Amino acid sequence: MASSDAFDYLVVGGGSAGMVVATRLAESPNATVCIIEAGEDLISQPNFLIPGLSAAGLRGPSDTDWKFHTTPQENAKGRSIWLPRGKVVGGCGTTNIVALGKGHAEEYDTWETLGATGWNYKTLAPYFKKSENFVISEEETAQTGMKFDPELHGSSGPIYRTLPKWTSNATKPVSDAMTSLGIAPSAESYNGNPLGHYPLQLSVHPEHAIRSSSANSYYAPNKDKDNLNLLTGAEATRILFDRDEAGELVATGVEYSKDGELKIISAKKEVIISTGAYKTPQLLELSGIGDKKVLEAHNIPVLVDLPGVGNNLQDHYTSSFVVEVDPKYESLDSMLDPAQAGLEFMLYQEKKQGKLTTNGAAQYAFISNHSFMPEEVSQKIYAEADDLVKDSSNPTLKTQASWLKSAKIPDLEFAQFVGFLPIGDSMPTPGKNYTSFLLAITHPYSRGSVHINTSDPLSLPSLDPHLFEHDVDVEILVEGLKFARKVVSTDALKDVVKEEIIPGPEVQSDEQLKEFVRSTGQTVYHPIGTASMLPKEDGGVVGPDVRVYGTKNLRVVDASIIPLHISAHPHATVYAVAEKAADIIKAAA
Q1: Is 497 helix (H, G, I), strand (E, B) or coil?
Q2: Radius of gyration of the chain from its Cα atoms, rounded to whole angstroms
Q3: 407-450 residue pLDDT tens
Q4: With b meaning 16 or more CB within 10 Å and e meaning fewer, what string describes 476-506?
Q5: Which of 526, 565, 569, 571 is catalytic?
């Protein structure tokens, strides 16, 4: 690792995407790369490495979190909601719950249809494989029907993808219940069709049972390269520009704050922003790229009037359903007992077995509204969605309205968690066991924004997701809660479930369920879209070459460029996007 004040490539943000891009660019021995990261390298700490502790980062803001909060949400009872984002080497890949997944082929194909030429399911498939190492044992294949397919799965990539080493005996009854309601089991969710229910897949090492992230799987094996430099504790404050002889805007470096001082580092070739869906639009606006009205309001000189910056924010919005189960069905709630927790830690340390080897989520189901809504309700929601998008200038909304009518594209994630998922002030009763279901809309109609509210680069931006702004989103979750009640009422679960805890049997009418959703609903923390890869006239910020419109050598590579959400946890997709983007940048060198 060499020290310098000028590098060929500056990668701003050492998170999931940034580390992929940086290490791939550093594969060329003649290219020098510097990663500018606001957090520190803490991946060796047990609370980040042990899968069973992965949810600890969701308990509340910490020094390894950016401490983002939304503006008060008018349609969510005025709540200001905490939105965790990893401020640490590896970013959210170091702090998330290690869940992986892959969306529907048509969702990726739509990126190209919307204008991102060359970005579709077929072109992304090799990069999913390149980024991963899928490991599955013969025993796991026998249990799940899943198997390694070289056409679909990678076997030598940096990120391990594995099945949980521990599963609760409450998992199979839930699986049987969903099957009885017409939700078919799937032995292959990585083939472009995520419909059905299937075991959770984790970014966890198969033998060591530790988190696999861009920090320890991409960066760590390459950190001693002379041409790769990591600058930690350095928060980028703006991108520096000059104009070439043709008048084009050229990124020449990055200004950053470290130890209370502003410093500058120069770029000889390119600057790549990989700071995520919340920080990327902020950095662009601080640098003079964004909506002219936003920039002028904060006395920032306008270099590129680009109204799409910070808009088209999307996330997966959620509600939760919790039941108490018979004590003979295992849950993570036993970890609340210090004696039991101690035994689990010993089991993990000595044998890499037990509850700490997994994150507690047992299985996913991704389902179409055709599978969980009555026909008359579906038709009502279709009409509301059509009315909502008919006058919209956002092409992504029109696309998802057509998906709603299709039985092919999932509209709801229905995920089982073998334990108590706290909602608001609710807490589990010691000594009792629970199973929870996380319900998430895959394509919400609410569109939010992220913008600066001051020219101070060290202040956080204003985040307004417009949560539940449209009744369609609330109605889909209400129907999801009704479906959860159907699931727990099946014969498969009649001897498992003791009682409904959340929302509770007193919450029955549609209006009461809507009130519950608006009062307690959250997000799964999957923000995308704030620097969308769309045509400029459609609100785009980057083109298919991931270069920011109006600049010669500034690119964005992170979840912010994804123009329309997918029916999956997006982490594996972010790795694939970064791998493809790295090849694009290398080809332009």
Answers
A1: strand
A2: 23
A3: 999 999 999 999 999 888 889 999 999 999 999 999 999 999 99
A4: bbbbbbbbbeebbebebbeebbeebbbbeee
A5: 526
Is the CB of residue 488 less than 8 Å from the CB of residue 505?
no
Cis peptide before 503 (omega within 30 of 0): yes
Q: Does the structure show a pLDDT above 70 at 2?
A: no
User: Three-state secondary structure along 303-329?
Assistant: CEECCCCCCCEECCEEEEEEEEECCCC
In this structure, what DSSP letter does residue 218 have? I
The answer to whether residues 89 and 40 touch, using CB atoms and an 8 Å cutoff, is yes
286 pLDDT above the threshold of 60? yes
Share of the chain above pLDDT 90, in %: 93
Cα–Cα distances in angstroms (integers) from residue 73 to residues 288, 448, 521, in the given order: 28, 11, 11
Task: Specify the amino acid at residue 585.
Answer: I
Question: In the chain, how many H helices and how many E strands?
Answer: 16, 24
Identify the residue whose tokens are 């509210």: 453
Q: Which of 513, 498, 484, 502 is nearest to 181 (CA)?
A: 484
pTM above 0.90, yes or no: yes
Q: Helix, strand, or coil here: 587?
A: helix
Q: Is 172 helix (H, G, I), strand (E, B) or coil?
A: helix
Mean model confidence pLDDT for the chain: 95
User: Helix H segments across 26-102?
Assistant: 46-49, 92-95
| 3-state SS string for 336-390 | HCHHHHHHHHHHHHHHCCCHHHCCCEEEEEEECHHHHCCHHHHHHHHHHHHHHHC
Active site residue 526: yes
Give phi and psi for 528, each to the nearest 5: -145, 175
CB 486 within 8 A of CB 402: no
Measured distance between the N- and C-terminal CA atoms of the chain, rounded to whole angstroms: 22
Pick the closest to residue 85 from 49, 101, 102, 61 (CA basis): 61
| DSSP 8-state class, residue 217 | I
* Helix runs in 453-549, H state only: 471-488, 510-520
CB 38 within 8 A of CB 14: no
SS3 labels along 230-271:
EECCCEEEEEEEEECCCCCEEEEEEEEEECCEEEEEEEEEEE
Instruction: Please give the C-alpha separations between residue 273 and each of 5, 68, 190, 478, in angstroms, as whole numbers.
Output: 18, 19, 29, 38
- Residue 222 contacts residue 1 (beta carbons within 8 Å): no
Whether residue 250 contacts residue 551, with contact meaning beta carbons closer than 8 Å, is answered with yes
H or E stretch covering 122: helix 121-131
